[in-house]
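Quick one: structure for this chain?
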Amino acid sequence: MSHSPPPHDVVIEELQPPPLPGMVEAPHASGHDCHDTIGLSSTHAQVLLETVHQLQAGQSQQTALIQKLHKTVLTSRSMINELVVSNSELKEELRKVSTALQCGGCKKKEVAFAAQSTLSVAGQTADEEIHNIIEARKRKQAWPVKHSTLNCFSVQNDLVKLRFHHSEKYQHVPIRIPKTEKNKDGTKPCKLCSEGKIRRKTTWMCAVCEVPLCTRPLMDEDGSAQTHHARWHSVRDLASEHRRCHDELKNGRESRKRAKVGEECPIIDGGEDLAVKPDQAIQMI
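Got it. Here's what it folds into:
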């Protein structure tokens, strides 16, 4: 009688279903593959972080470069203004020298001195020099200039340099005249057009020169006319410009008086430069 083999000697293979057509068996995940994936992600994150840092550094360099270019433009503008003014003044002084040589007399020395003064103003003026000019006048209690303002800013070389110097630190923009106990409304007559009883009040003054100046044209002038603030910083002979501006103000008021004969009403001529906003004033420079 034969006996069947014991159950533990029987080897039974588990049948696996055949793979479907087109299906590829996926590899088994292992700890080694997982570590490779994590390491790759960390490398990508580090590269991205370095790229962000490089972009930020580039942006900072670009901002610094723009600021440097802005400062260079302001400095170039100051030098160009000084050279243009000096060129026109030199032509005028040469004409005077030529006339003096033909006529002779004691005026030769005065003309030569005037030409030398004009030459001394030419060229670039540094911020440090302007700072020293203002500080020296403060020590002498001569700042701001309150007496003979037109003459001082026309013939005194330090004030001429200050008037034509433009930089990021010293920008000739209109600012409000501060109110005081004696000047509660914060207004003063414009130095370029006011004289005697014919005055035009303004609430604006130059931030650097500290001189009250109109920031809008007269009523009879069109919008393209230069303001008295702009004229102050663009002409060399302020005395002649003052006479011209004063005559314009005087003639404008007289013409309006004649047009309003018999009418008892105040003269409205834009005689007070009070209603201009700061941003409008800057645009009119």
